[in-house]
Amino acid sequence: MRIRPETRRWLIVAVIFLAIVFNYVDRQIVSVLKPMLKSEFNIDDDGYALIVNVFTICYALMYPVAGWLVDRFGAGKVMLYGVLTWTLACIGGGISRTLGQFTFFRGLLGIAEPSNFPAQIRVVTVWFSDKMRATANSLCVAGSSVGAIIAPPLIAWLALSYNWQTAFIVSGSVGLIIVILWALIYRDPPAEVLAKNVKASATQVNTEAFKWSQLWKTRSLWGILLIRFISDPVWYFCLFWLPGYLQENSGLSLAQVGMFGWIPFLCADLGAIGTSAWSDRLVRRGKAPLQARKIMLTTVSLAAPLCLLISYVSHNPVLTICLFSVIAIMCLTWVFNTPVVMSEVFPVKNVASVLGIAGGFGAAGAVLFNYFVGQLIGTLGAGKIFTFMAFLHPIVVLLLWTVIRKEKPQS
């Protein structure tokens, strides 16, 4: 059956959304089950940070490679094999019997999962015009926070009803369905659709690009790398430490985290989709696309100082969840729209590579941050960490306005 391009692009978005949902469920399992895994493998916060960092280091190292693979072989193949590999890795975590085995499969998950996002931004860039790109991108990447939303109740229910291994096996198995859907639905856009969306001929799309070595000489690449390196750790804290923080500092049980721990991620999802749609609306009203993204990202960053208040309300889980909900909106808006900024700044043939490199730098920032959180949260206290977090997004706003510009290869 032939599917019209206008219909196919939204079906592709739907499959990417589903893939990212379970991409995040698979990585969130360890944060939701943190106390249970610490007991199972007889580790402390330092040991938990090691497990998280094995995943994150592999993720950081593979991200640039995944971006290059997408630009070299296309989004279709890279996405297909990436989802299949992380499915096997998640199931492997569920059948692990030792800490070494478990850590190995978390590392394999980290190697496989970066394939998703370079493929996704390449798809959005070639299938959607700049007047719809941020909205389409946010709908795809919304799967990240939806995954974080459903992870606490789903994982808590599976672990409490069966055991912690079941949570890994069930979540991983869904990936097999996603692989089949992707193989059936994804196709590259027709030449006329591609030319319209990137405002260039098919020949220009395929030839106009920076060489790998030239990319590193562009000012905007370094700006984007610093933005991801500095800002990503705040979102990683929400993903990897918030469920455990609510249990260990705010007094919630695992069952209560399952009931309420999803709230910040739902708020983040709805808020970030709304802010992304607002930036597209600015474009439709005549603002230059890059300027529209900058205005929106600056506005949401006004929430950053709220990090200073978290430690003062940690005894009150309701206020803690409310503050993290606003902070999560800010974080996810940057996660959603930094790739859109890349698509406005760099040629189509470079977008996946830039996202891959930037994602690696963002994960590297998270590795360092996770290490220091694991080392210091028990000694200095969470308050010092939250104070540090409050200054990160204002710094990247400054970088966004002073460093990022449209980059074009010289003829």
UniProtKB/TrEMBL annotation:
Keywords: Membrane, Transmembrane, Transmembrane helix. It is a multi-pass membrane protein. The keyword Transmembrane applies. The chain crosses the membrane at residues 51-70, 139-160, 166-186, 221-242, 254-274, 295-312, 318-336, 348-373, 385-404. CDD domains: MFS_ExuT_GudP_like (cd17319). It is found in: Membrane. It comes from the Bacteria. InterPro entries: MFS, MFS_dom, MFS_Na/Anion_cotransporter, MFS_trans_sf. PANTHER family: HEXURONATE TRANSPORTER (PTHR11662:SF285), SOLUTE CARRIER FAMILY 17 (PTHR11662). Residues 12-408 form the Major facilitator superfamily (MFS) profile domain. This is MFS transporter. It holds the Pfam family MFS_1. The lineage of its organism: Bacteria, Pseudomonadati, Bacteroidota, Chitinophagia, Chitinophagales. It comes from Niabella digestorum.
